[in-house]
Amino acid sequence: MNRSVRILSACFAVILLFSLIIPGSAGAAGESCAPSQAVRKHYINVSVATLWKEPSINRTLDQPSLTSPVDIRKWTASMSVSQRRWLTGRTETQALYGQEVRLLQVKGSWVKVAVVDQATSKSQYGYPGWLPSSQVMTTTSAYDGCPFVVVSAKTAVLYKQDKQSKALEVSFNTRLPVAAQEDSWIKVHTPAGGTAWLKAKDALVYEQAVDIPQPSGTDLVHTAKRFLGLPYLWAGGSAYGFDCSGFTSAVYAFHGIKLPRDASEQIKEGRPIALDELQPGDLLFFAYNQGKGKVHHVAMYAGDGKMIHSPKAGKTVEIIPISTPEYAQEFAGARRYIGE
Hints:
Layout lengths: L2 H19 L14 E9 L3 E5 L19 H7 L2 H5 L5 E6 L3 E8 L2 E6 L11 E6 L3 E7 L5 E4 L3 E5 L6 E6 L3 E8 L2 E5 L5 E5 L3 E4 L10 H9 L11 E2 L2 E2 L1 H11 L8 H4 L4 E2 L10 E5 H4 L3 E9 L2 E4 L8 E4 L3 H4 L2 E6 L4
Antiparallel strand pairs: 1-4, 1-7, 2-3, 4-5, 5-6, 8-11, 8-14, 9-10, 9-13, 11-12, 12-13, 15-16, 17-22, 18-19, 18-22, 19-20, 20-21
């Protein structure tokens, strides 16, 4: 080896050494994932975005859910039971911070989008609805190949760079790309292109979606029980309030299983299960016309002849016997979505 080659080799060795010991460099516990250039994509840029059937049909009291940032706690706490019922048929679904949406239409300060990972027959692109354009962020940078976090706490705080100042509170099931992991903290990429810190105890980290462990039925029920007492919210899909199918799809999604957004379509997935074969985690469906009409409700079998569900406005997530007359007379079938 001549002298110039030895010098060049030594330089590479020094570079490699520094890359291993300097925080934030490749291979260190610091920054570990960089964005890749992609086509334009659109992401939810508020903790929870509520999608409406039409633009500008909201009431004054809905304003906290329409701003950027939103105040979902204030909005849900301000509504009476009748005001919650008013949302029926007017709101469509909700999307969480960082969820990808497809832009379908623009009308003034409102945009119609489809939530990409919420399957529905309403649109080939995802579950559609209208929301203020200020709640959507457009970017050409993607982190599709990065590890990601799934928020496991009912709600979690994203902190600014000082790890003390609150940036945003996000819901259970929020997924964000991981930028770095450091002791008891996880650094995540945000939709707006910045980063924030999340306490490691509030989330789970996966290299890719297929790494999420296959749940048992007991796992699904355990997750569902964490939301006992949470008030029902029509179109709700977050830890601030669920509707019936928002509840079941969120619990399954947390465990890596995607279900259609609506109960009427969830019943078309999985495999049929007889009542005497029910196991925890199976879903129970209820329909008009004594179970022969359109499916309008879904619950999860909790074991011991009971079910857990998010019933209707004015009630909370609860566990009741599956023999409860109101539901038993409308039973339309059961489905299982996990292996034996």
